[in-house]
Amino acid sequence: MLTATEKQRYRRHLQLPEIGEAGQLRLRAARVLVVGAGGLGCPVLQYLAAAGVGTLGIADSDRVELSNLQRQVLYGPADIGQLKAAAAAREVHRLNPDVYCRQHMLRVDRANVREVLENYDIVVDGSDNFPTRYLLNDACVSMGKPLISGAIYKFEGQVSVFNYQGGPTYRCLFPTPPSATEAPNCDTTGVLGVLPGLVGTAQATETLKVILGLGEVLSGRLWIFDALTFQSRLLRFERHPEHSQLHLDTANLSDYQDWCAPDLRSVSPMELQALLQSDSPPFLLDVREPDEHTICHLSGAMLLPLAHVAQGANQLPRQHAVVVYCHHGTRSAQAIAQLQDQFGFSNLLNLTGGIHAWATEIDTQMPTY
What we know:
The protein is α/β, with parallel strands linked by helices. Helix content is 35%, strand content 17%. The strands form two sheets. Strands 3-2-1-4-5-6-7-8 form an eight-stranded mixed β-sheet, sandwiched between helices. The protein has a five-stranded parallel β-sheet with strand order 9-13-12-10-11.
């Protein structure tokens, strides 16, 4: 039974015959894991907490940064530098103290995915990379859990529900991951700040529908929204046995490889400082965009944006170390993977944490963004 306080808090739900007290009790008993407490995860967590979902899991290993605040609305300036899972959990508790919040301060990977997912009924994918999307899909297939998926790019968003009551899986729509060079990178591509709110709210809506058994769930349908025209459309797709049966034990393990963290050698800001002061300093390669380079850069660095790395490969030395950097280390890792795979470079080092870490740990007077 609901308490008197719960009946007052959820009165608008109770007034809906489709929900009522029985539905609110189902919400209270539900256990939902939200993977990613970023642009999509923030509105998902807000609305699921407000709706009275009893247990919310938050899986994220990142920390809040100033550039997150444009769209990740659970956080404010005081949260900068804090782990997102912890900061989001505090906000969930503030919104609704009756919601039990589990914090998973980690990056979900093949080694831990079963353990992280096992105590939840539904998984909401708020990640921003394809390896995690395929990993979550395959784990949900293996463990028989529905997956509420969302994605954003610039001004467009997408939402669908996979592996729901025998419906299609993520692989039925996208059988194989794109290559590292084909996939958009959220670190280099802007996004309209309100778009994650719209898409994340749609994910929260589908989550509530799955819990309550309401309406027509977006299973076998992909909702596509264009913020510039405010038009949306539905793309229908079917379940394909050859794709839908792939799971953690049968899928290609390379599908879970994070191009942002390939098999590469890294150098810390402190180690780079020592190298730059040595008798044989490394060649510096900046793979950010020109406007970022203008804000701040390492002295003497060659600017070669990630999109043009292949064209500029012949300008890079092969006989001594090349330290590649970007803002946080994501694009530089992709650049190294491309240069190693396509051009056979073996002398590349990735600056851990990018120029942001350099400005934080070494040159505190450097302007950053």
